[in-house]
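Morning!

This is the sequence you dropped in the shared folder:
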Amino acid sequence: MEGLPILSLMLLVPLVGAVLCMISNATNARWIALIATLIDLVLGIALWMNFDIGGAQWQFTERADLFAGFQYALGIDGIALMLIMLSVFLMPICILASWTSVTKRVGEYMAAFLVMELLMIGVFAAQDILLFYIFFEAGLIPMYLIIGIWGGSDRIYASFKFFLYTLLGSVVMLIAMLWMIGEAGTSSIPVLLQYDFAPEAQTWLWLAFFASFAVKMPMWPVHTWLPAAHVQAPTAGSVILAGVLLKLGGYGFIRFSLPMFPEASAQFVWLVFGLSMAAVVITSLIALVQQDMKKLIAYSSVAHMAIVTAGLFAFNFQGLEGAMVMMLSHGLVSGALFLCVGVIYDRLHTREIARYGGLATNMPRYALFFLLFTMASIGLPGTSGFVAEFISLAGVYQISSTTTFVLTTGIILGAGYMLYLYRRVVFGEQKNADAAAMPDLNAREWLMLTPVAAAVLWMGVYPESFLAPMRSDIAAVEARIARAAPQGDAMPVAGEPREHAANYVAGDHGGGEGEHGGSAGTESEH
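The structure's back. C-alpha cells below.
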C-alpha cells in the first residue's frame, strides 16, 4: 500500500466510470456503474485493513500545489475512514436497486451516482478547507439532477427546494472560510484544527458554519426540504440521501464547528439541545400520522439525526463516540428501510400504507428483512441502533438529564410509529388482491438487502470493530473542546473540579474511562 495514492484512485475510478456510462447503452452503463462501485468498495476495504489504529492521526496523505496557493490535499483519520466506508458500501447497493426500475436515460443516471460517490469520498478525504467546500457543494448537483429528472410527479418542486435550502446556508460558510484563511494564513484543515480563533470571532464563524451544517443534517425547523426530496427521489436516491448526504452535516460539526470554535460551541449548546429536543418530539409525532411510507421514514431520519447533534454537543467522549456510531447506524438502517419501500413500490407503484397489508403471507422473506430493519430503527439490543442510541444518550446525560429525558421519549415514539407502520404493511387482512399477488424477493433484492442486514447485526453485536479506528480521533476532538466544556447537571462525581475532568480528557482513554467511571460511582456511593 505504501506509495499508492489510494484516495486519488478512489476518486478516479468513479470519474472514469461516469464518463464510460455517458457513452454507453443502458445495459452496459448498469454493468460499468456496478463494477466501478465494487472496485471502490474493494479499495475502501484495503484502506480499512491498512489503517494503522494508534498510528499517525492523518494517514494516506497526498499533497500537490495547484494554483494561487490552492492545494490538492487528501488524507483521512478514523472518523473519515468510517464515513468513506459507509459511502462505498452503500453505492453498489444503490446501483442494484436501480437495475430494473430506472429505464430512461440510464447512462446519465448511473453517471450521476458515480459522480456523487466521487464527491462524497472527496468531502471526507479533503485536507484543504477550500477543497472540502468544493466537494461539499458540488454534491448538490448530482442529487439535484437525480431528483429532478428521475423523481416522482412533483420532482421539480422538490429538487429546487433541496437545492435552494442547502445552497443558501453554504454561501455564508464560504465567507467564513475565506476569513479564516486570511486570519490563520493557511487553508490546511489539520493546521486550522490547532489554531485558536478569538472567542468573539468564533461566535460569528460558528453561526456561519451552523447555517450550512444544520440544513444538511437536517435540523428542525430547516428540515422541510427532506420529506419532499425523499418522496420524489427514486429509491436509490433516497438511500444515498439518507445514508450518506445527511451525514455531511454531522461530519462538518465534528470536523469544523467543535474543534475549531470550542468556546462558541459551548456558548450555543442550549440552541443545539433545544432544536434537538424539538426535532425528536415534533417529527416523531408527525411520523405517527403519515400515510406515505417514504414520508414516515424521512421524518424518522430527522428525529434520529437530532440524537446525533445532541451527542456531538455533549462535550464528552461518550457523546461524540455515540454520535459517530449513530451516523453509521442510521446510514445503514434508514438506507435499508428505503430499500424495503422500493422493493414493494417496484411491484405496486404506490407508497400508500393503506394499499398494502398481510404481506407476511405472500412475502415472508421480505417481511423478515423489514422486521430486522424496523427493530434496528427502534434500537433493539443486538442491532446497531441500540449501540448508537445507548452510547449517545449516556453522553448527553452527563451534561443534561432534561435533554436526555426528552430524547428518550423520542425513542418511545419511534417504536410507536415504526411498529405501527410494520403492522399495517406486513400483518392484518389482505384487502387488496394486487398486493396479495406480489411475489417475494428475487435474487437481485436478496443481494441488496443481505449485506446491509449483516452490517446492522455486526455493528450491534461487535461495535468495537467500528469504534476502534475512530477512538483516538474522537479523543483528540474531546481534548480540543475540553477547555470550554459547560458544567453538566448530572456530573458523575458531586463537586468534582473541572480541572480534574480536563486532566482526564488529555489522558489515556483506553482503560481510563472505565476506571474513571468506576471510581466516580464508588465516591458517590460513599
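Headline: The longest strand covers residues 59-67.

More detail when I'm at my desk.
O.
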